[in-house]
Amino acid sequence: MNDRTQNGVSVRLENVAFSYGEARFVFDAEFRAGAITAVMGASGSGKSTLLNLVAGFESPQAGRVRIGGEDVTALPASMRPVSMVFQENNLFAHLSVEANVGLGRSPSLRLAAQDRERVEAALARTGLAGKGKRLPRELSGGERQRVALARVLVRERPVLLLDEPFASLGPALRDDMLDLVARLQAERCMTVLFVTHQPDDARRIADHVVFIEGGKVAASGAAAGFFADDGPDVFRRYAGTNGRESRHVARKPT
Ligand code: ADP
Ligand code: MG
């Protein structure tokens, strides 16, 4: 595991078929080991579904999910080498910050001295030193997402799935959080799948972009080419409308 963590692990979906009633998905995609890939696409295109299939919260009707070359299609979510952070509700409201992070080491919160040290270190690393005894409601929205990232650190899983984790934060704070993700990713060589509506977010930290449309990968490639004037047509159409709209919304004072 240590070796694999240092080199990163790839994530591969091989013709993964899934449906929610009428909504059908077929994902064929490779996410580069030790890189950040932005997963973009209109609302309802299937971005969260793709992440849920990688995490094991949903099971495909056909196809394989591979992580680091290993077939994990039949593995339950708890056994997969994956952590996930959502837009909100990542924390248990009745547990302290340090307990919420400690859950990443032991679901029963039986923490040895070494585990407590890891929790402290993760809180310091995410800018939360001294806030371990607080309850989630005593934190700002940005701090709560830092707690979720601290838990990711103590879990030490090589794949990190981020489902619009900073969408409700203002732009300056969002940039701080993105930079924190980029630093943590580089230190751990994690393979990150990062769902975002904001082309600016992807431009800031992503190496690659996968663009989803209608339950399929419609385009993918290096971030630099994607955002260039001669980038993929499907993405230019999206960025020309949704991109500007969402950027406008994000800059409104809240
Ligand atoms: P995105 O994250 O890109 O906005 P989702 O993956 O959440 O999109 O959803 C894709 C499609 O699947 C949407 O049409 C949505 O309504 C449908 N869907 C998502 N989750 C469920 C669910 N639990 N039950 C039924 N339909 C769902
Ligand atoms: Mg979603």
Please give a handful of descriptors for the protein shown.
ABC_transporter-like_ATP-bd; alpha/beta; ATP binding; 23% strand; binds adenosine-5'-diphosphate; 4-stranded antiparallel sheet; translocase; cell membrane; Rossmann fold; disordered C terminus; 254 residues; nucleotide-binding
Strand and helix map with partners:
Blueprint: H1 2-7, E1 11-20, E2 23-31, E3 36-40, H2 47-55, E4 62-67, E5 70-71, E6 82-85, H3 97-102, H4 113-125, H5 141-155, E7 159-163, H6 171-188, E8 191-195, H7 199-205, E9 208-213, E10 216-222, H8 223-226, H9 233-251
Parallel strand pairs: 3-8, 3-9, 6-7, 7-8
Antiparallel strand pairs: 1-2, 1-4, 4-5, 9-10
Helix pairs in contact: 4-5, 5-6
Residues 20, 23, 41, 43-49 line the site of adenosine-5'-diphosphate.
Can you tell me about this structure?
Residues 11-239 form the ABC transporter domain. One of its GO terms (cellular component) is membrane. With 254 residues, the chain is α/β, with parallel strands linked by helices. It has two domains: 32-81 and 158-253, Rossmann fold (3-Layer(aba) Sandwich); 92-156. The chain is built from nine helices and ten strands. It has helices at 2-7, 47-55, 97-102, 113-125, 141-155, 171-188, 199-205, 223-226, 233-251, and strands at 11-20, 23-31, 36-40, 62-67, 70-71, 82-85, 159-163, 191-195, 208-213, 216-222. The strands form two sheets. It has a six-stranded mixed β-sheet, sandwiched between helices. β1 and β2 form a beta hairpin. α4 (113-125) crosses α5 (141-155). Magnesium ion binds next to α2.
